[in-house]
Specification:
By secondary structure, the chain is an alpha+beta fold. It has three helices and seven strands; from the N terminus they run αβααββββββ. The chain starts with a helix and ends with a strand.
């Protein structure tokens, strides 16, 4: 597949998978933005980020340019191979979902995508 057709395909995005939605909802527990963000999850389109198989996704904008805003939620879990994985949810400057960013400390692909009960939520300053 040509790079152009890959970009075209990626720009259409895909809906959130149920496990991704569950993770976002769990991570937003107690967050002031939760109610507004949850209302957008059923229609949200995302694309997989090129992160070496760690599971990060970027939310596609609704026809406007946007810029990274801030971290609104943090969590971590231990993957099946015993390696720590950090997860953050970022919003843009309009407080709309920007990305869910995974970072596995050894930079290897995830062995198993986390379920909501697997994560430990961390405080966001």
């Amino acid at each position: 597949m040509s790079e152009e057709s890959q970009l075209s395909k990626a720009s259409h995005g895909r809906p959130l998978r149920p496990i991704e939605r569950e993770l976002v909802e769990k991570m937003l527990t107690g967050n002031d933005l939760k109610q507004g963000i949850e209302a957008t999850l059923s229609s949200a389109l995302v694309e997989d980020m090129q992160d070496g198989g760690m599971g990060s996704i970027r939310f596609l904008p609704s026809g406007r340019s946007r810029h990274f805003g801030r971290v609104i939620a943090k969590a971590e879990y231990t993957d099946e191979d015993g390696v720590l994985v950090s997860i953050v949810i970022n919003v843009d400057r309009e407080n709309e979902l920007y990305e869910v960013d995974f970072w596995k400390v050894n930079f290897e692909p995830l062995k198993r995508y986390p379920r909501a009960p697997d994560i430990k939520i961390e405080a966001v300053p």
